[in-house]
Design the sequence.
């Protein structure tokens, strides 16, 4: 993820410019679960908590 951060930001920026919601925006604004294609079930990720923990560990995942 860290190695592909610039590309990820371009994709998210393009999506937002086109008015397309991204998973992170969806979670921020109230959707709490998502499905994965690699395993069954509903999943929830607390993105802001994950970012805080990553930054505290010295990984700049969302910066």
Sequence:
């Amino acid at each position: 993820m860290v190695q592909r951060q610039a590309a990820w930001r371009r994709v998210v920026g393009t999506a937002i410019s086109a008015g397309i919601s991204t998973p992170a925006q969806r979670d921020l604004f109230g959707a709490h679960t998502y499905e994965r294609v690699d395993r069954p079930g509903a999943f929830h990720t607390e993105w802001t908590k994950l970012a805080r923990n990553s930054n505290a560990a010295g990984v700049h995942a969302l910066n």
Observations:
- The chain is about 45% helix and 5% strand.
- Residues 18 and 34 are 22 Å apart (CA to CA).
- The chain has one domain: 5-56.
